[in-house]
Amino acid sequence: MKTFKIGGVHPEENKLSAGCPIREAGLPKQAVFSMFQHIGAPANPVVKKGDVVKVGTLLGEANGFVSAPVYSSVSGKVSKVDVALDASGLRRMAVTVDVEGDEWDENIDRSAELVRLEERPELDAKAIVEKIKAAGIVGMGGATFPTHVKLCPPPGKVAECVIVNAVECEPYLTADHSLMLAHPEEILVGLRLVMKAVGVNKAYIGIECNKPDAISLMTEKAKQYPEIEVVPLQMKYPQGGEKQLIDAIIGRQVPAPPALPIDTGAIVQNVGTCYAIYEAVMKNKPLIERVITVTGKSLSQPSNLLARLGTPFSQLIDECGGLPEDTGKIIGGGPMMGKALLSLDVPMTKGSSGLLIMNRSEAKRAEMEPCIRCAKCVGVCAMGLEPYLLAKVSGQRDWDAAEQNDITSCIECGSCQFTCPSHRPLLDYIRLGKSTVMGIIRSRATKK
Amino acid sequence: MNLILLAIIALGAIGLIAALLLYFASRKFAVHEDERIGEVSAVLPQANCGGCGFPGCSGFAGACVKSADEKGSIEGLLCPVGGQAVMEQVAGILGMTAEASAPKVAVVRCNGTCENRPRLVDFDGAQSCKVQQMTGMGETGCAYGCLGCGDCVTACQFGAIRINPETLLPEVDEEKCTACGACAKACPRQIIEIRLKGSKNRRMVVLCNNKDKGAIANKCCTVSCIGCGKCVKVCEKFEAITLTNNLAYIDAEKCKLCRKCEEACPKSAIHAFNMPPRKPKAEISEVPVAPSKTE
């Protein structure tokens, strides 16, 4: 079975909610829409206090090319346009809507009927990208990079194939898995839309072999499209990383930054993004809801919820049986790359793929001990870096050394810290070093 | 015998030629360093802290000599560690006059102690303020207050700053602090300010760095500046206090130490350093006394 070549770890899977069908979460009483739901320039709020909005009303418009609009996922009245705490742990600009009823914008097609690509021959590449851009679709795997930017390769670069990221290598998370089981046809149509948008006729769907039901279902449904191939992959973290997935499926390596994945001729889209693209293009539905896995060993009902964006996390936990008493840490995202939340009142965003409730014993960090130079971190680094060294030079604030040792190539997957027998906070320091070095590189570029 | 003599003569000749070569080379390629640089460097504290803005003490000495030659003065150059005394010695060597410089000290502009600002979550990552700053707001609801991991303590070469275990805030030892500014640079939230020490070390400081709107700032800390502007009003005469981004700032040069702002602040965010204790206004006796109008 295929997999990427360098490094990788295999954390305990803990897919507690695997096989749970997608359940629709209730409407929140109040929804908060952060203007920072994507990478790039934040959206500009276009509503003011007192405005009446419907499901699908534009709340914030995209601010530049690398940006995405934000739509309301509820109907009601805007009660606040002000800073609010979000999942990043910062207070940032957001629109708060007091929910009244559930009135949808009339342009949105809410029927469950499948619309095939052949039924809409008028859609050309440009129209598809425009619709994706207008719907505010971003990478739903968690990176939240605006999708339309990925579909417009820079001049001189040509896409050869599309890779669908259905790996879901993070432990605990099952959102993509459940989505594949529930909407395989829609995902395939979404993928064909992407293929049409970038003008390629080869696509791969990479699925890890711990989801045999999804592999067989997708393989069966994909038989009608000979250009789409389902590739079962060996289980290994971080296979869901864009660069690792390209390596695993087509065997090409993405060069060091500033090179982009498109340099290998591959465009990678998450399976959730494909579904969102289908809904946006075929059903006129902007990105207003997503599947989120709410899980944890102490949680009474780990579930996959289809929840409206802007719903507070506290409500999602209540729908899954309430917050367990022995909660030690609540993580937005998966256990490897997710971020601990400061408060449960923060809303879910476009990138919220999971909500993990760790109990106290799981959450406790082990005592840090001296580095024993075992080089396990070097062995597992999927980018072929030397994490112990990067962490050390970052701690010493030796940014030149950090840059020379390619700290900017780090994908922050956390394999090094996961594997360290001395429990050293390697990634904490590498993140610090990476962001500082990136800042230095940026300021150098502006000076020139 | 002949062989030994030959070897001695040959080696002696090579040695002589090499010595002559080295002698001429050292004369020809000698680097002429201004003697004054060495002299100035000798009077500097040799802390190599970088507080002056130059790479170490010899760098500062070089800058002093250069400035004296080019500009004819050493204005604008100050060794914060040595202070006025060292600068006068430097000026003496260079034949200049030292400009008067008021001593400065590091001030931690946060009073978010455990009591004033309760911890809402625990941060268990790497114990570094810079790392914690990247994870978001920190352990309390205040996005501007002290993170308490002690980056400033590690940065201080003089052992002048330490974390008080009771308040979890850094405390500056004014005797040891040389105002080199290393702690201020190390703080990711720019809480530490290098401020005029003031006459008799007395000074008024707003012990808060919170630039949030009043409602948010009020919620997270009992002694936060909420930007109400009352201090600005009582200081209209001296105009020492300014309000920017919902945060009051006292200009140490304009402040007359009248302590009116301290009284006016509804949140007790303004703190008086090294001031004599206030005279009690009126003894509160158990027998109620009719308020006198003179008070």
Q: Number of helix segments of chain A?
A: 14
Q: How do the strands line up in the largest sheet of chain A?
A: 1-14-13-17-15-16
Helical proportion of chain A, percent range: 25-40%
Structural class of chain A: alpha/beta
Number of domains of chain B: 2
Q: Which sheet architecture does the biggest sheet of chain B show?
A: 2 strands, antiparallel
For the record, the CATH architecture of the largest domain in chain B stands as 2-Layer Sandwich
| Assembly category | heterodimer
Q: What's the overall geometry of chain A? A: globular
In CATH's first tier, which class of the largest domain in chain A applies? Answer: Alpha Beta
How much strand content do the residues of chain B show? 5-15%
- The name of the CATH topology of the largest domain in chain B is Alpha-Beta Plaits
Q: Indicate the low-confidence ranges of chain B by residue numbers.
A: 285-295
What is the SS-derived class of chain B?
alpha+beta
N to C succession of SSEs of chain B: HHHHEHHEEHEEHHEEHE
